[in-house]
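Treating backbone geometry as a discrete language has practical consequences that deserve illustration. In the encoding step, the backbone of a single protein was reduced to a row of integers, each denoting a local shape. The amino acid sequence and the backbone structure tokens for this protein are reproduced below.
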Amino acid sequence: MTIQTNAWHPDTCGCAFEYTWDDQDLDRVRTLNKVIHVCDLHKIISLTPSSHYSTVSDENVRKNKLYGRFLGVSDLTQTDASGNVNFKNGVDVSFSWDGTDYARILSASITGYNLSGANKNSVQDWCDSTFGFGKVAIN
């Protein structure tokens, strides 16, 4: 058993955390060690350190899973010679957050391709069933 320590700066806000994990544990369960920084968006919410970490982690996972879902839309992607799936040249997916409380809404926008209504609805339906209604808006 070797306990490792890492600093995490999510790309969804300006918060920063230090967490630990046992590198012998295959599940890699992360345990919050301390909050390094609270961003302005999360500062207005009175959170315990563990609920703050959980809230920010949930937001980050939501964004990452949606990014992966967009990579599954064949109209937006191409496969390179190594078999890696990437967005087509000129296609960009961007994310922003609306709100400043526990229920921040993730907004996703696609530029460089006009996503069909059927594909947009399919991704939105997936978001609603995966994260809960009103947690994500596809623009």
